[in-house]
Amino acid sequence: MKKFSNKKYTSLMLAAAVVLCSAFTLLKEKPVLYVIGDSTVKNGKGKGDNDQWGWGDLVASYFDQTKIKIENRALGGTSTRTFQSKGLWDSVLVKIKPGDFVMMQFGHNDGSPLDDTARARGTIKGIGPESKEIYNPITKKQEVVYTYGWYLRKFIKEATEKGAIAIVCSPVPRSNWSEGKLARSEGSYSTWAEEVATAEKVYFISLNKIISNKYDVLGEKTVSGYFPKDHTHTNGAGAKLNAQSVIEGLKSLKKCPLKSYLLKS
């Protein structure tokens, strides 16, 4: 009887170990959606300070977080260039594993000067191979600066090399109006983002177009209420509209695996 009990006890312990190992494996292999970008994606610490929110802080609520983890790694004030030169991208890249996702939205700060004493964060306009060596007054070092497209391609290539799926978003629109119509950014960063995504054969969400169309319907007066401080940073309501637009764009993508992690509506 004692021998039988020992066998039973051993079997139960082995079964428990298998269950624990399986649970640990599932937890370990849970995919992560990394969101990277500027202050329109994450403003400040992402807690709504000064009544300003980025869409990346709200987008997680649309996903089944028992199956996928969402990390908003965006930082205000960054461009495609400085998100990399400050080491922010490296801190994401080191964590990426096969099956993860990287959603990126940049452009608002890339048009800044290349070598001013304030931030030195700008990139060369376009998506070509052009470069320029400058003296960076912030780091006090020489630096080779590339195009907006060059930096986007670097994000994409390095993420995909590690087995992640890249999704490029065009930058959300600012609240700039002319004769009752929102000023579009066609022909610049929105177009360049799409061109890079197409060339690299990765997913693209035309976020600028989706939101701009909604703004035109809502009208200048209503939309202006989403921007309490300036024409770039939204409040909670504006960030929610932007986050909903991200999800709308995601749902329109063909055969994008990230869609399978969305909550069922």
Offer a quick outline of the entry.
With 265 residues, the protein is of the alpha/beta class. The chain is built from eight helices and nine strands.
CATH topology of the largest domain: Rossmann fold
Radius of gyration: 22 Å
User: Could you estimate the helical fraction of the residues in percent?
Assistant: 25-40%
- Give the neighbour order of strands across the main sheet: 2-1-3-6-9
Name of the top-level CATH class of the largest domain: Alpha Beta
What is the string of SSEs from the N terminus onward? Answer: HEEHHEEEHEEEHEHHH
Number of domains: 2
Q: Note the overall shape.
A: globular
Whole-Å distance between the termini?
A: 56 Å
The CATH superfamily name of the largest domain is SGNH hydrolase
The total count of strands amounts to 9
Question: Biggest sheet, in brief?
Answer: 5 strands, parallel
Contiguous low-pLDDT stretches (5 residues minimum) are 18-26
Mean pLDDT, all residues: 92
Number of helices: 8
Give the CATH architecture of the largest domain.
3-Layer(aba) Sandwich
**Pairing-aware structural class of the strands and helices?**
alpha/beta
The proportion of strand residues reads 5-15%
Keywords:
five-stranded parallel sheet, 265 residues, 9 strands, Rossmann fold
What features would you describe in this structure?
By secondary structure, the protein is of the alpha/beta class. It has two domains: 1-30; 31-261, SGNH hydrolase (Rossmann fold, 3-Layer(aba) Sandwich), CATH 3.40.50.1110. Helix content is 37%, strand content 15%. It is built from eight helices and nine strands. α4 runs parallel beside α5. 37% of the residues are buried. Mean pLDDT is 92; it is low at 18-26.
